[in-house]
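okkk here we go again. third time trying to get the zinc ion bound version out, last two times i messed up the smiles copy paste (missing a bracket lol). double checked this time i swear
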Amino acid sequence: MKKFEEFLNKINFKKVAKVYVLVSILLIALCAAAIGYVTRDKIKMAIDYEKVSEAFEHKSFGENLKPKLVKLTSGSKDIINCIVVDKDNNIIYKANDNLVKDNNKFILTSQEASKRYLQDNINKDVAYKVTREENIIFNIDYVKIHDKILSDIDEEFYYEKDLKDEKVNLLNYLINRDTKEKLFIIRTVTPIPYAEALIKTIGGILGLIFIIYWIGIALWVYRDADIKKSNSALWGLLALLTNIIGLIIYTMYKQTNKVCYKCGAIQNKDSVFCGDCGAQINERCKDCNSIINKNQKYCSGCGRKL
Ligand SMILES: [Zn+2]
Ligand SMILES: [Zn+2]
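finally!!
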């Protein structure tokens, strides 16, 4: 215990706290940058998707939307095709020939093999699964590693056992309420490289930052209480268990008592002398012997002007 206290006394807590805050900010910024970097394609796709969605739902399909659809399709590995159909399901635009090479119409019905999937009127062996719009942006499956996706045939998003490893395409659709035109966005999920390792690393870094903060508070309270000759073990334990709450209680305790100017021990604020070193920490009124604080103008015992 003595060695531990000697070690604590060598620590300059102010300096350590400054370094800790700076390093933490740097590490958190690095983590954010790493996430941004590996998800840049997904973020770009989400932005392009939003632009398309905004343009399609408020205006009937026209030339202005074509470059946006081309950008969305060619800019992302996930997007297989974008198809626009009129109210009678006639294809009026497609970004490429993928999946709909021979289609004039694009009519989706439930698959006979599995009702959970849709098929179109021409390629009956191609399966589609409708996903919600927010899945485009917050698709949790992005973080899975590629091999896991390939082997995980139970995962309904990708493969269905009945479909004999046949790939299921994900489908989002938008409807223009005025013209009844529909926009189908067909996509797959390409995994983010090293996503799992990255998430584990970032989790570890954030966990470490938090643990150092938590233990640091407890150590500081322990040492401060030790210097002030208070029950350091008890205060340290309280701070270790309750962290910021323990720190607040300790600070309040210090404020309602008096710290000896000479030896630093915490004393009852009504004491005249320090119980640890004998220094006089409060004055007494010459007339009535009441204890006087420095900022009093009159004695609270007899009303004498000080
Ligand atoms: Zn003292
Ligand atoms: Zn007095």
